């Protein structure tokens, strides 16, 4: 291969094509037209003396040579990006960029909203696109740039992504003021007798990890409602005699007047981490945003 005929743009196109395995998606990612990417693919095939990508019914599949090229190509281009970005100064007040942030509605309330408030003051040119967290698709979304940053349980973070703990939370029991449970004195027995709301994001299940833990002790609670959103639960509990276990940070920011109590049986807390693709690791703007997140959560924990 004559390396004098190979320019950096072709290498970026090759990386996008091998990762996306689809000319249209690669063109969208590169902000080029589909004919332009097809023409660059033809040049790459000529330069490497190999088809590189072969058409299939569901896109394209790489040849053996292309599969051998992908890992060293990604590593070389990532090193180049990091070296270039390391020398770029980042001015939040003058920055213009968009952050694609994926998280649950609970994390939006306790972490994303404080970040948005801080960005309005410190970096008004940074836009935030809040996306519903889809753990099963996160690896693909991060690789394609569809998601820049995700907030997720560390145990659920896909392999190959950077992860940094962001905050810890615990569950507290909530009920309306004047609920019979408070008058009777809350015990494990009374907890099991009352009706409960659980959160099942999109699946409608009436059993959660709490119910599994109770079942190990041959116990069961009365689950009357399965909600699709954490944010609905405080209002539901306020207007009914249902009880619910919610993350303490969410209860703290809720504007619904509720009475709280400790869970009447041992229940582990949980952590939330920031997760991002290596391509964003050294990006000055992304790095600054992650720093703001860490500072905000540290401040809220100390308050």
Mean pLDDT metric: 90
Largest sheet: 5 strands, mixed
User: SSE order, as H and E?
Assistant: HHHEEHEHEHEEEHHEHEHEHEEH
- Classification by helices and strands: alpha/beta
Strand content: 15-25%
- Number of H- or I-type helical stretches: 12
End-to-end CA span: 62 Å
The tally of strands reads 12
Proportion in helices? 40-55%
Strand order of the largest sheet: 4-3-5-12-6
Please mark out the parts with pLDDT under 50 across 5 or more consecutive residues, or reply none.
none
**Shape designation:** elongated
**Spatial extent as radius of gyration:** 25 Å
Family: Belongs to the LysR transcriptional regulatory family.
Keywords: DNA-binding, Transcription, Transcription regulation
Protein name: LysR family transcriptional regulator
Organism: Chromobacterium subtsugae
């Amino acid at each position: 291969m004559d390396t004098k005929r190979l320019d950096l743009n072709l290498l970026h196109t090759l990386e996008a094509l091998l990762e996306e395995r689809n000319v249209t998606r690669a063109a969208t990612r590169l902000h080029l037209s589909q004919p332009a990417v097809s023409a660059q693919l033809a040049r790459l095939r000529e330069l490497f003396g190999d088809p590189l990508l072969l058409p299939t019914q569901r896109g394209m599949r790489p040849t053996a040579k292309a599969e051998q090229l992908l890992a060293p190509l990604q590593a070389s281009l990532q090193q180049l990006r990091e070296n270039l970005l390391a020398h770029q100064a980042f001015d939040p007040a003058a920055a213009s960029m968009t952050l694609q942030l994926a998280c649950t509605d609970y994390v939006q309330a306790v972490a994303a909203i404080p970040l948005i408030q801080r960005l309005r003051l410190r970096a008004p040119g940074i836009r935030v696109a809040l996306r519903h967290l889809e753990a099963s698709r996160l690896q693909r979304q991060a690789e394609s740039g569809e998601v820049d940053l995700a907030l997720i349980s560390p145990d659920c973070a896909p392999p190959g992504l950077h992860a940094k703990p962001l905050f810890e939370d615990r569950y507290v029991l909530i009920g309306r003021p004047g609920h019979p449970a408070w008058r009777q004195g809350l015990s494990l027995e009374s907890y099991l007798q009352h009706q409960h709301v659980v959160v099942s994001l999109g699946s409608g299940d009436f059993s959660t990890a709490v119910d599994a833990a109770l079942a190990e002790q041959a116990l069961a609670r009365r689950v009357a409602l399965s909600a699709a959103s954490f944010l609905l639960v405080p209002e539901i509990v306020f207007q009914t005699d249902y009880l619910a276990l919610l993350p303490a940070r969410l209860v703290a920011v809720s504007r619904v007047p509720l009475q709280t109590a400790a869970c009447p049986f041992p229940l582990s807390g949980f952590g939330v981490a920031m997760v991002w693709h290596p391509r964003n690791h050294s990006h000055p703007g992304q790095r600054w945003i992650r720093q703001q997140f860490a500072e905000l959560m540290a401040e809220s924990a100390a308050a």
